[in-house]
Amino acid sequence: MAKAPHSFFARIYDLFMVPQDRFGLRHQRQRLCNEAAGKVLEIAIGTGLNIPHYRDAETVVGIDNNRAMLRRAIRRTWETKIPIDLVAADARALPFPDSTFDAVVVGLSLCTIPDPAMTLEELRRVTVPEARLHFLEHVRSTKPSIARRQDRFARLWERISGGCRANQDTAGLINESNWTINDMWSSDGGGLIQGTALAD
């Protein structure tokens, strides 16, 4: 899903995430995946950092358009009893029939996918009518001083982070699509959100 889908980014991704995981992101990953139940689709699964945190999923299908990332994710599928399939695919054109999944997990991915609105529509297509969308995303801060810095360094950050648009209004995009947020947590600085959305 990232703008730099190559082996170099796959090699450094886990190291890149270590500081964030130590400062609380690991806990947020647990919350993100713990409640995902039934047949689950995770988009932009990357190197599989979320895989150990699934508890109630019947099965998980993880997609990414970065094959180097998927190769690194394979080893994490061996560490869980939950059946996990990894598929090379683009979230904007999913290779699944309508109404295939009960839930979707999007972790730090809607901020990197080139067309998040199209992706949200596609996610709705492949989920059942009562589906839940579980999300964890970088967003534009609610604090003006932080938001200004995000805007100032947006292009630089996008280049070094594999395409992440950290100043994107992802909550607004979700609510403007055929999903409605019913529960959401925000970090103190408002730069990280997590929650669930229900299918319209």
Provide an overview of this structure.
- The chain has 200 residues and is of the alpha/beta class.
- It has a single domain, classed as 3-Layer(aba) Sandwich (Rossmann fold).
- Helices cover 36% and strands 27% of the residues.
- It has a 7-stranded mixed β-sheet with strand order 3-2-1-4-5-7-6, sandwiched between helices.
- Strand 4, helix 3 and strand 5 form a beta-alpha-beta unit.
- The radius of gyration is 16 Å and the shape is globular.
- It starts with 6 loop residues before the first helix and ends with a strand.
- The N terminus is likely disordered.
Short characterization:
With 200 residues, this protein is of the alpha/beta class.
